[in-house]
C-alpha cells in the first residue's frame, strides 16, 4: 500500500546533529578535551587521521546554519551539548562562555520558530573523567547528574525537550568492549559496568534536569535498537542473546525497572553485575515523556558453530581483539545481509522501522515515541555547477517516512522524525569519508549546499496540510 506522505497535525519534522561531529572550536573559549579529541589523535583510530577540531565550524557559523534550517522549514533541531565545553574538567567549575553558546543557539532557534531539542551526551566524555575511570565507574554517572543540573538551570526555561543520552549501546560496547569508538578500550567486563553506569547516569540526569528546569521540558533518552533477524538452527537463541545485550540491557532498567534475567545469566562468566547497588533500579526508571528511536538498518544473527570461518558484517568486530557482545561473542555471529546497501555497508530495510515502532508500542503501550535519527550515507557527487543530486538518499528517506506513516496507521503514538543529519559531518571512526547530510559541506571551504534530499524534505514539510 502506498501513502501520500501526510502526517498528523503537529508531527515534528526535524533534523539532527551532534556537538563533536559539527561544532569544531575544539579549544575555543575554555573547552576542555574530550575522549574523542584524544581518540582521534591516536594513530590508526580514525580514517585518514581526521579529527573534529574544525568539523563543520558550526560553532562560528551557527547563525547561518539556523537560517538554512528555517529556509528548509524544519520544525525542530536536535543538537547535542558538549559536556567539556560546559564543564571542562568534567566536574566542578562551569565555563560560562561555553554555556552561553548553547543559550544563544536556543534563543536563535526559538526566534526562528524551530523547537530546540538538546541531548546532553552524544559521546564526548570529558577526558579527565575517563582518566578517573570513565563510564565503567560510578562517579561518572554522578558527575553526569551534576552536569545535567547545570544545563537544566541554564536552559531548562527555553528548551523543548532534553535527551539524557544518545545511544548508550555505542558508548558502552563500542567504547569499552569493541574499541572502535573512544576511549578505545577492549574490556568486556568494563563494557557491562559502563552499561549500568550509563543507565544510572540517565536516571540521575533525568531527575536532575526535571528538578533544575524552571519550565517543564519533555524528558527523553535515545536508544539505537537492533532490529534482529535470525538465521539457521538456533536462530531464536541467537536473536534472544543479542536482543538482551543490545536492546533489553537498556529498556529493562529504564522502562521496566529491572535487568533481564537472561542478560545476567548470559554474561555471568564475564561479570557478576555487583556494581548494581540497592536502589539503583528505582533511580534509573524515570518516567519518559518521549522515547527516542534511532534506526538505520536490520541485523541478521545466527549461532556460530565455533569452527567454520566466522562471518561478521556488523562493523564492530574489526578492532584489535575487541567484542561488542560480552558473553555472546563466541556463540553468535552476524551474517552478511543481501543488498541494497548504503555507503556504510548497512542494508536498506524500511520495513524494519515499522516493525520496530510496532514492537515498542506493544511493549510500552503508553509511551510516546520519536524517531530521533534515520538517514543514510551515500557517495555524493558534486556537479560542476555545485549542485548535489542524491536520488538514493531521497529514496531512502521517502521509504522510511512511508514506513513511519505505516506505523502511525497501525496506531503507534509516533510524535515526529529527525533526519540524520542536517550537515555532512565528522562520522566518528570514518572521519569525513562518509556523508550523511541533506546539506553538503565542502570540507575545504566549509561552504554549505543543500542537496536534492534537503529540497525534497523542505517540500515534504511544506506540503503538509
Ligand atoms: C548514529 O549511530 C549516531 O548517533 C550518529 O552520531 C552517527 O553519525 C550516525 O548514527 C551514523 O552512523 O552492525 O548490525 O550491529 C549509529 C550507530 C549504526 C550502530 C548501525 C549499529 C549497525 C548494526 N549504529 N549499527 S550492526
TrEMBL record:
Q: Which UniProt keywords apply?
A: Glycosidase, Hydrolase
Q: Which SUPFAM superfamilies match?
A: (Trans)glycosidases
| Highest taxon above the source species | Bacteria
Q: Write down the InterPro entries for this protein, in alphabetical order.
A: GH (IPR017853), GH_1_N_CS (IPR033132), Glyco_hydro_1 (IPR001360)
Record bears the keyword Transmembrane helix = no
Pfam families recorded: Glyco_hydro_1
Q: What class of enzyme is it?
A: hydrolase
Q: A Gene Ontology biological process annotation?
A: carbohydrate catabolic process
MF terms in GO: beta-glucosidase activity
| UniProt GO cellular component terms | cytosol
Q: What is its EC number?
A: 3.2.1.21
Family named by the database record: Belongs to the glycosyl hydrolase 1 family.
Protein name (database record): Beta-glucosidase
Species name for this entry?
Answer: Microbacterium ginsengisoli
Amino acid at each position: 500500500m502506498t501513502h501520500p506522505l501526510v502526517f498528523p497535525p503537529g508531527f515534528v519534522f526535524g533534523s539532527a546533529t551532534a556537538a563533536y561531529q559539527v561544532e569544531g572550536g575544539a579549544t575555543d573559549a575554555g573547552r576542555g578535551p574530550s575522549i574523542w579529541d584524544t581518540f582521534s589523535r591516536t594513530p590508526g583510530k580514525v580514517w585518514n587521521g581526521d579529527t573534529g577540531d574544525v568539523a563543520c565550524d558550526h560553532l562560528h557559523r551557527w547563525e547561518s546554519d539556523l537560517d538554512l534550517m528555517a529556509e528548509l522549514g524544519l520544525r525542530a533541531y536536535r543538537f547535542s551539548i558538549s559536556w567539556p565545553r560546559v564543564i571542562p574538567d568534567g566536574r566542578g567549575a562551569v565555563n560560562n562562555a561555553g554555556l552561553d553558546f548553547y543559550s544563544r543557539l536556543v534563543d536563535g532557534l526559538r526566534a526562528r520558530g524551530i523547537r530546540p531539542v538538546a541531548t546532553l551526551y552524544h559521546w564526548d566524555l570529558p577526558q579527565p573523567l575517563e582518566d578517573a575511570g570513565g563510564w565503567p565507574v560510578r562517579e561518572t554517572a554522578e558527575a553526569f547528574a551534576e552536569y545535567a543540573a547545570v544545563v537544566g538551570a541554564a536552559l531548562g526555561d527555553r528548551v523543548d525537550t532534553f535527551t539524557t543520552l544518545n545511544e548508550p549501546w555505542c558508548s558502552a560496547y563500542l567504547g569499552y568492549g569493541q574499541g572502535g569508538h573512544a576511549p578505545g578500550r577492549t574490556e568486556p567486563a568494563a563494557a557491562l559496568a559502563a552499561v549500568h553506569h550509563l543507565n544510572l547516569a540517565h536516571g540521575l540526569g533525568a531527575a536532575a534536569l526535571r528538578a533544575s528546569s524552571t519550565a517543564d521540558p519533555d524528558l527523553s533518552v535515545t536508544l539505537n535498537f537492533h532490529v534482529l533477524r535470525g538465521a539457521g538452527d538456533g536462530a531464536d537463541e541467537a536473536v534472544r542473546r543479542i536482543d538482551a545485550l543490545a536492546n533489553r540491557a537498556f529498556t529493562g532498567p529504564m522502562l521496566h525497572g529491572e535487568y533481564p534475567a537472561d542478560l545476567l545469566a548470559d554474561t555471568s562468566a564475564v561479570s557478576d553485575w555487583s556494581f548494581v547497588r540497592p536502589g539503583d533500579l528505582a533511580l534509573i526508571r524515570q518516567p519518559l515523556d518521549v522515547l527516542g528511536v534511532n534506526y538505520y538498518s536490520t541485523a541478521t544473527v545466527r549461532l556460530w558453530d565455533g569452527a567454520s570461518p566466522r562471518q561478521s558484517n556488523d562493523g564492530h568486530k574489526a578492532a584489535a581483539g575487541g567484542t561488542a557482545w560480552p558473553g555472546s561473542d563466541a556463540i553468535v555471529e552476524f551474517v552478511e545481509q543481501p543488498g541494497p546497501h548504503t555507503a556504510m555497508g548497512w542494508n536498506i530495510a524500511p520495513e524494519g522501522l515499522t516493525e520496530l515502532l510496532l514492537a515498542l508500542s506493544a511493549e510500552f503501550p503508553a509511551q510516546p515515541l520519536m524517531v530521533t535519527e534515520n538517514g543514510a550515507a551515500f557517495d555524493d557527487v558534486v556537479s560542476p555547477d555545485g549542485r548535489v543530486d542524491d536520488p538514493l538518499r531521497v529514496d531512502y528517506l521517502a521509504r522510511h517516512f512511508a514506513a513511519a506513516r505505516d506505523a502511525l496507521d497501525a496506531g503507534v503514538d509516533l510524535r515526529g522524525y529527525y533526519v540524520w543529519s542536517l550537515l555532512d559531518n565528522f562520522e566518528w571512526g570514518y572521519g569525513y569519508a562518509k556523508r550523511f547530510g541533506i546539506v553538503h559541506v565542502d570540507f575545504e571551504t566549509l561552504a554549505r549546499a543543500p542537496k536534492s534530499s534537503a529540497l525534497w524534505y523542505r517540500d515534504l514539510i511544506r506540503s503538509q496540510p
